[in-house]
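Posted in: Structural Biology > Protein-Ligand Complexes

Title: Requesting predicted complex, UFG in pocket

I'd be grateful if someone could produce the 3D structure tokens for the following input. Sequence and ligand are given below.
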Amino acid sequence: MSSILITGGAGYIGSHTVRILREKSVQVVVLDSLVTGHRKAVPEEVPFYQGDISDVGLVRNIVETHGVEAVIHFAALSLVGESMSKPDLYFYENTAKTNLFVSNLLQLGVKKIVFSSTAAVYGLPEIVPIPEESPTNPINPYGLSKLMIEASFRWLEKAYGLKWVALRYFNAVGASLDGSIGEAHWPETHLIPLVLKAALGQRDAIQVFGTDYNTMDGTCIRDYIHVLDLAEAHVLALEALDHQIKSGIFNVGTGEGFSVLQVINTAKKLTGIDIPVVEAARRSGDPDRLIAKVNKIEKTFGLRTRYSDLETIISSAWKWHRNNSNGYD
Ligand code: UFG
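-- Reply #1 --
Done. Output follows.
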């Protein structure tokens, strides 16, 4: 028996990936500290361990018990704002612990890893759509905490033969189409959940952070990828590692951008609710435009996004938020 270990499998992107792998009859085992993840996001039948990636003995036990042959490593802290006030926490939780975890895996003979990286490694991009070979210059510790791991993988590959794929996510959004799993962060900082919470009356209004950006309507443009398409990218990356592709870095987005106002207006249309909108000051560290260049992942893995149109994104998220207004609680 062999399995894929999913760290952070009880989190937002991890739980959708667990589901897709099971639909493809791939054996998975989940390790999640439940610091930000939710036990209910993982089906009862899936082997589940509550614990930390830095627990060397626990990881050894999981690898040996389940015959782990590859890892998808989602477990991390991911609040950009929090990383600004607690950079040491991010370097410890995301960078130091991942280094220890991967070193342990290598000693156990596990040499294949798909890693959650982020568009935040690019900082304020010079060229948009952003190609993978763009300069990396993160403007927050969160982005740097991930970039350091990408860089470390090159050396671990040379020294020990690590096979790795780092996926640089753009904006992960949406929920499972049946509305049974979705985004449940506390505190919530992301645009689409906050828009829908305003639609549900759980918040007074959605604040638009900045209306004077150099974009067609003055609001920031982002590349929104449906979490199911993002999950699929991990599955394809895993398969590619089995076929001896070259290790490396891949953007995961759609190559298309939407403004904050376009998102809000689509949400108004799809919910039928006149969501209250308040113009607010710019949020610090927001680039005006972040759009992925996606030809590398399309060509190498054959990724074709299927759910990342704004309508499917917002209607799936709406179903999740309407049915689960308190998340998993
Ligand atoms: N926004 C608002 N109002 C809100 C929340 C967000 O106007 O209440 C705006 C933001 O200013 C931004 C856009 O909506 O222009 C999207 O913001 P999100 O917070 O949803 O997402 P980000 O683009 O800031 O963050 C995403 C990922 C991070 C990653 C970052 C890379 O969620 O993990 O991209 O820059 F680090």
